[in-house]
Amino acid sequence: xxxxxxxxxxxxxxxxxxxxxxxxxxxxxxxxxxxxxxxxxxxxxxxxxxxxxxxxxxxxxxxxxxxxxxxxxxxxxxxxxxxxxxxxxxxxxxxxxxxxxxxxxxxxxxxxxxxxxxxxxxxxxxxxxxxxxxxxxxxxxxxxxxxxxxxxxxxxxxxxxxxxxxxxxxxxxxxxxxxxxxxxxxxxxxxxxxxxxxxxxxxxxxxxxxxxxxxxxxxxxxxxxxxxxxxxxxxxxxxxxxxxxxxxxxxxxxxxxxxxxxxxxxxxxxxxxxxxxxxxxxxxxxxxxxxxxxxxxxxxxxxxxxxxxxxxxxxxxxxxxxxxxxxxxxxxxxxxxxxxxxxxxxxxxxxxxxxxxxxxxxxxxxxxxxxxxxxxxxxxxxxxxxxxxxxxxxxxxxxxxxxxxxxxxxxxxxxxxxxxx
Length: 421
Prior knowledge:
Blueprint: E1 4-6, H1 8-11, H2 33-42, E2 48-51, H3 58-65, E3 69-74, H4 77-87, H5 92-108, H6 120-123, H7 126-140, H8 148-162, H9 179-186, H10 193-216, E4 222-226, H11 232-238, E5 244-249, H12 259-262, H13 264-270, H14 275-284, H15 305-317, H16 319-342, E6 343-353, E7 356-358, E8 361-363, H17 365-375, E9 379-387, E10 406-413
Parallel strand pairs: 1-9, 2-3, 2-5, 3-4, 5-6
Antiparallel strand pairs: 6-10, 7-8, 9-10
Helix pairs in contact: 2-3, 4-8, 5-7, 5-10, 7-8, 8-10, 8-13, 15-16, 16-17
């Protein structure tokens, strides 16, 4: 099958992109143009769009803006919070009042919600700790905190300034104190969290104002659940959802990002996860470097010839890395199986991925995923690629995952139920 050369940014004007996408940064965030194009092409109004790796809710928001229902799952509780804040319509008058009250409470500084976690003084100045504690108290104790939607918005705003308020370099994917930041500290720089919070409340109010009016005008829903994408069927059925019309997702890349290490400061300050829980979640994440229980005296084997060749090459260089790659694709088998189980007949599954380089061995991820999909009775109906242009997709400091220069868009159809033939 011939592939399309996409340029999604040219398909839609920059001023057509919903500003609500910008309420919180998120590593390796999908550009909105990709889900918009695919949702418009493969779905109709009121269809159910599902993203099992929803991240910060890019696909969910685009689905809602297009009058589709949307469901997301993510293992990261911060991702769930951002997705909910981004896609929940708010009463603008109530939100305006809440922002004013929280600002007043933060400026008065009458209360503090103190958190404790490892190396606090390494990551935050005493002044930043003090101001963040005041903001934390203000958000969690303002008069209108019975409104969960507004509370999520305020927590998301708080989360969005934590990295900026710390000594961690905001340009790095992982939480890391760089030489650049150390030099800034030596020159007398100190963060001002209350000022940052005041500014981001105003910016995010403007970002959500127009989208809230739009989302309030339609009757579609957005539901977001924290959980493991490998347990999709169980999670959806527990919440009364038997099938979906369309699946779109961009799963984690192999060994490319450590989402929990990237957002540990936010998770700790918001009380979404303890350091121990962060480590546990990281071990569960697909694409993780943390693997255990493998007998690495033998080369891992797959039924895919291409993957076996790659595993052999990597194993000769780094046995652990070969098992990381093997486990990644074994986990992706589970994802395709779950996707097939909950996708309606005639529905489509669109997956956005990138090829990796591990130990200088190039991995054609998209080719291997096509093979896995076809083994799970999916049929490839469209394939294309889009060059990554100025997208925030930094590799880790050691460049173990390689620099991903383009994304592959794989679209599969479900033509019949496995049980029928």
